[in-house]
Structure formats: C-alpha cells, structure tokens
Specification:
Layout lengths: L8 E10 L5 E9 L5 E7 L4 H15 L4 E4 L6 H6 L3 E4 L6 H12 L1
Parallel strand pairs: 1-4, 4-5
Antiparallel strand pairs: 1-2, 2-3
Length: about 110
Amino acid sequence: MPALRPNQRWSMDFMRDTLKDGRVIRLLNIVDDCSRECLAIEIDTSLTGRRVVAVLERLADERSLPHTIVVDNALPRKSRLEERGSKAAPASAGVVPEEAFVRAASALG
C-alpha cells in the first residue's frame, strides 16, 4: 500500500561504493515514501547496527518514527522500533520499487 501522507512510511536501504584508492564506503539512506524527502544519508567505512539505531533515534527525536519502515535486508531490532510505535517490514519479493526509489534518490544527491 502506498504512503498517503508524509511520515507514514519510510524506506531504508544500504549501499556500498569503492573509492579511487580502493577503500569501500557504506551508505545508509532513509527516504519518506510519500514526500520523497531524503531524511538521512549516513556514510562511513563501517555502519554497525548501533549506528543504524542511532540514526533512527535521531530521526525519532526530530520528527517521530513512521508507522512502517520498509527495508530490503538486515531488519533493525524490532523491539527498539516498536518501543517508539513503529514497525519494520520487509520489502516486497521480486522487483522492489521502494529500493529502486531509494537508490535513485540517493544518486541524485
């Protein structure tokens, strides 16, 4: 079901890239599915579960968590999200439009 209002559903995706010197960087992108606002881009050589939780907690403090966060893999700890009134949901099997949108939004900047 599509998000009908801002802050109803977010998509979260992890990406990686390789720098010219061979180092690998990882990116965590979080996008509001209704407004298409990029809420967070976290970039580092390593993104641990604690970092993901810290980003989600920062967003929760700034604007509150949505009802659902769609992820394609590595679901965050459900109990932490549920404590804040949100839930993690896996993306649909097969072609994942949410993932494609998050990747396209991340590429734009």
